[in-house]
Amino acid sequence: MSDQRPANMHSVLHQNIEALVEHRRQQEEHQSVQVRIAGAISRFAGSMTFVYLHLAILVAWILANLGAMPAIPAWDPTFVILAMVASVEAIFLSTFVLINQNRMAEHSERRAELDLQISLLNEHETTRLIEMVAALAVRLNVSTPADKELRQLAENVDPRKVMTQIQQASEDQQEA
């Protein structure tokens, strides 16, 4: 037998986490300044600090323009300027959120592609293991309850065929 010891699961997990963190850090370093700014604005706009700040500004604006603060003359008694500022701010905030969502969707798509590649590799390795176990069973003349399924399990799955079948099933379901 080999003198090789199984990898410590904790150290493998730790290495994987470190690799993922490093990869994420590198991705963030390669983002453009505009994307970083949009992300920072989106994070701030999604915080309670943003809500409190806007609430304070809104209350002060309304009180000042209703004459509740005699030291400050009203500059927007009909609140038209407030409505315009709020509208312009909403346009910009929604744009920043969309930029951030596009970036997140791109990351999600990359992760999904990585997951698919790992799944395909895992399927290939599992198929090879099944072939090896089946060969051992034949050599040792051992029968198993899975003997009837071994031929099918030992076949590689063609992802194109699976995607075609999924597409066909989706179309069939939509037609029904």
Question: Notable features of this structure?
Answer:
176 residues, mainly alpha, 6 helices, 77% helix, DUF1003, transmembrane helix, transmembrane, membrane
Write the layout of secondary structure elements.
Blueprint: H1 9-29, H2 33-45, H3 48-65, H4 80-139, H5 147-153, H6 159-175
Q: Tell me the Rg in angstroms.
A: 30 Å
Beginning-to-end CA distance, first to last residue? 58 Å
> Which oligomeric state applies?
single chain
List low-pLDDT spans. Answer: none
SS elements, strand count = 0
Shape: elongated
Please indicate the count of domains.
1
Helix content: over 70%
What is the beta-strand fraction?
under 5%
The largest sheet is: none
The class by helix and strand makeup works out as mainly alpha
- The run of helices and strands is HHHHHH
How confident is the prediction overall: mean pLDDT? 87
Please, how many helices? 6
Q: Can you describe this structure in just a few lines?
A:
The chain has helices spanning 9-29, 33-45, 48-65, 80-139, 147-153, 159-175. It is mainly α and 176 residues long. Keywords: Membrane, Plasmid, Transmembrane, Transmembrane helix.
Q: Can you walk through the features of this model?
A:
Keywords: Membrane, Plasmid, Transmembrane, Transmembrane helix. Pfam families: DUF1003 (PF06210). This is DUF1003 domain-containing protein. This protein is mainly alpha-helical and 176 residues long. The protein has one domain (13-45, 78-175). It has 6 helices and no strands.
